[in-house]
Design a protein that fits this description.
Blueprint lengths: L1 H15 L18 E7 L5 E7 L8 E8 L9 E8 L10 E2 L3 H4 L8 E2 L5 E8 L4 E5 L2 E7 L2 E7 L1 E7 L14
Parallel strand pairs: 1-11
Antiparallel strand pairs: 2-5, 2-7, 3-6, 3-9, 4-7, 8-11, 9-10
Length: 177
């Protein structure tokens, strides 16, 4: 009797703890920055990076739901865009770039984007601000479904955006020469 009771409690505990990272996530991610892409942009111009998803072989398709900064306070003062893209077998071509180029990069709407078994894909994140300054998003959370199971994966990959040459001494605006 005790054995059956214990087996019945385990699924309840797992559900109470919330979604796990699942197969698209990276084991050991904690919300602290492991690496980041960054660069200087003009006011209103996006700086963009891609978060590669770790799709494992023989899984059912994953349906992406949303992406957001791990800490909401990191996004203060920023306008953020998210999209999804199928990645070529050799990897992502967006490590860090200026501008938001949905057609050139083959970007698709993130909510409802399907990552099939053995497919490589990424979540593309772009951030900008109308106010000059230095902004840093330490890590991101991506939520998705596989079947009816909900997952929440933390990506310890950050995005640094420096808006305006006055705040970014090592960056010069290409438009100004």
């Amino acid at each position: 009797m005790k054995r059956w009771l214990g087996l019945a409690v385990i699924p309840l505990l797992l559900t109470a703890c919330g979604p796990t990272a699942g197969p698209l996530g990276r084991p050991g991610s904690t919300g602290k920055t492991g690496s980041w892409s960054g660069g200087g942009v003009r006011s209103g111009q996006f700086f963009v990076t891609a978060l590669p998803l770790a799709q494992r072989p023989r899984n059912k398709p994953a349906v992406l739901l949303s992406a957001r900064p791990f800490k909401a306070s990191d996004a203060r003062g920023l306008t953020i865009r998210y999209a999804a893209v199928k990645a070529p077998s050799y990897g992502m071509s967006i490590g860090g770039a200026r501008g938001w180029k949905p057609k050139a990069w083959g970007l698709r709407t993130l909510p409802g984007f399907v990552v099939g078994p053995d497919e490589r894909a990424a979540v593309v994140v772009g951030a900008t601000s109308s106010r000059p300054g230095h902004y840093f998003i330490r890590s991101f959370v991506i939520e998705y479904l596989i079947g009816s199971r909900h997952y929440r994966a933390i990506f310890d990959q950050g995005l640094e955006v420096c808006v305006g040459a006055d705040h970014c001494p090592s960056w010069t605006d290409p438009a100004k020469g």
